[in-house]
Amino acid sequence: MAAFCLLALAIRVIPRFDLVFQPGFVNFQETDAWYHVRVAENLVRHFPWRIMVDPYVIFGQVPDTATAPFYDWLLGLIAWLAGGGSPSESLLHVIAAWYPAVLAVCEVVAVFILARLVFGWRAALLAAAVIATLPGHFLRVSSLGFTDHHIMESLLVTLFFFLLLRAIQTQALGTSIAAGLTLAAYLLTFHGSAMMVGVVVAWAIYDRVRWFSPEERPAPSLRPLYLAFLIALSICLVFYRLLWMNYTIAALGLGSLAIGGLELWAKLCRRFRRPSLVYFGGLAAAGFAFLAVTAALAQSIRHSAKVIVTHLMPSLFGTSGGVYELQSTVYEQGHFTLVPALRQFYGAYFFALIGLFLLAEYILKRRDLGRALIFFWGFTTLILSMGQLRMTYYYAIAVALATGYAADSLLASGRKTAWVISLCLALLVFAPNLYAVINGDMFTGISEDWKETLNWMRTSTREPFGDPAFFYARYPRREYGADYRYPPSAYSVMAWWDYGYWIVDVARRIPVTNPTQANASVAADFFLAQSEQEAVPVLQRWCTRYVVVDERLPLWPSEQEGIIGDFPAFFEYARARRRSDYLQMAYESNAEGKSAPKMFFLPAYYRSMAIRLFIFGGQAVDGRDGAMILFLQQRGSHQEVVGTKRFESAQEAGRAEAACRDKGCVLVGDNPMVSCVPLEPLQQLRPVFASTSSVLGFGRRGRKAVQVYEFTGAPK
């Protein structure tokens, strides 16, 4: 176990150490991490009071803090104690960077003790080895510098399951209280935690229904579960204003009533001559009544169900917004595939499926609360992980436990089988896991260009609230809540939502949008705007003073991937813009004579504010040598290029396109950095800063990686 813990720590720290700990700067490796750090920076100055609203997080109406409090509070407590009540910011940042990796080591131990309780020593050691080496998203969220709450969710769920099962087994009051406090900590770590409560309630109901006996046979008492729910409910009621906390409170309350009502019904039924008939008859009647109510409310339920399903499986319904965490593990590029799932778990994915099957078979034949709970959790999180990638850090718990159980069961079936299973574990699970860890993607956090830009913004632009110390204020809800109005000095920074928390914590300025995707449609509308006349009202409405663009926003030719860039992501949020008005995909014969898809750029692409600012610097463009006419023909479900004609002059190309438009021709450019139409200079957006550490294009005259423009029409 010590070796597994050291291995888990090493693979999370060593590859990323130099990326995270830079001279004079801790570079956190994910966007949300920066906001957890911002909250912790404020917390340690007012410990134990954590900000519940934040006027820096987004411009407009001040929102509630987007993260649940426990993860930030524990981080702040550790830093506060380490710093003797007044930790330096550098000490806090170092502790925050190590925080997820240390929690990952604790998760290895938690999986081990849970598996040992339910399955035994050998399965526990195998499960610990799996969770220590799992690649994919679970490794990502538990790595050095990835200071986000996801790994704590996994840890607290595992600990709660262990304490709950142990409390039911021993009926110990102290263990029951510990389970309740752990459950409360989990519910205050993740806003969507009502899901886990629902799984536990379903597990308890299954046990009471499946193993109903007409006689008063002793059954494991669920009093520890009631006590744990009561403790968690009492604590959660204090935080009733948190996002989605009403669902959590309802799940705890209604879940307790459902389990208690079921147990009371079972006790009453045993008084009848034929208790089983009355018991299951009553359950059937309740089921029919539920279906009748559901049918009566079908219209509203259908809408709610659609909303829930689209949130659980966003990539299948085109609502993922291009967010990495929201991609599916079984659906990629328009078709179903197991490749994303295998990238997350490799051979453990199949071992886990075998383990879940064996668990299902076991709990249908015998009563075992521990194995039933792990099966319910594993089956639920398997389905949820199919819908979105971020649920894999929950399914990872089940993968480790089910793999350990399956391997242990197969190892016990005979010496020859044991050799085969050992070889499969080595070649299909641990070797691919370690290979993926060594050769996995490295995260870079804030680039040197962005660091330079954010530092300039912090030191060279006006304070939005007049006093830089306001960044560390308490922000009482009654004063800074929904009714708060920004002072005349406040202004916003327009950038894509990915960079919102960087702007908040490093630049200490107010973004228009942030990684919650709030106001992402505003930014998309601005960056896709076709003229200054369209763009200026957006800037005026949101009191924007600065616009930031970087090299990720345009599209760039790439030898490996064809075309790369974030420009298509704008259409995930734009309210009245269509991708087909900006980009033209058509099939064209390549050098080998085969028809292959190729991206062409319509005039709207070059006219968009994102391109005019980043590629052309807001300057006039004559459109020389960039225009061409495509002659297209519909072939099945796609368009094919049947002819092309290039022009030296954009004006000449425009006249030619107007003459042949009814014949299927279209004016395009095939180089995203050379416009096919003339562009007038921008009058109200002037460049005020550009990063110096990187240069894109050709020589020193190429475009800088990050550029800042000032809106001259902003209030002074």
Notes on the protein architecture:
By secondary structure, the chain is α+β, with helices and mostly antiparallel strands. It has a domain at 446-716: Rossmann fold (3-Layer(aba) Sandwich). 53% of the residues lie in helices and 11% in strands. The strands form seven sheets. Strands 5-6-17-14 form a four-stranded mixed beta sheet, with helices on both faces. A three-stranded antiparallel beta sheet has the order 12-11-13, covered by helices on one side. It is globular and about 95 Å long. The N and C termini lie far apart (62 Å).
From the structure above, extract its key features.
three-stranded antiparallel sheet, Rossmann fold, 17 strands, single chain, alpha+beta, four-stranded mixed sheet
Give the topology, please.
Layout: H1 2-13, H2 17-20, E1 21-22, E2 25-26, H3 31-43, H4 69-82, H5 89-118, H6 121-133, H7 136-141, H8 150-170, H9 173-187, H10 194-210, H11 223-238, H12 245-269, H13 275-296, H14 298-312, E3 331-332, E4 335-336, H15 339-345, H16 348-365, H17 369-387, H18 392-411, H19 415-439, H20 448-460, H21 477-480, E5 492-494, H22 500-507, H23 520-528, H24 532-541, E6 544-550, E7 556-558, E8 562-564, E9 583-589, E10 595-601, H25 603-607, H26 609-614, E11 627-635, E12 638-647, H27 650-660, E13 665-668, E14 685-690, E15 695-696, E16 703-704, E17 706-711
Parallel strand pairs: 5-6
Antiparallel strand pairs: 1-2, 3-4, 6-17, 7-8, 9-10, 11-12, 11-13, 14-17, 15-16
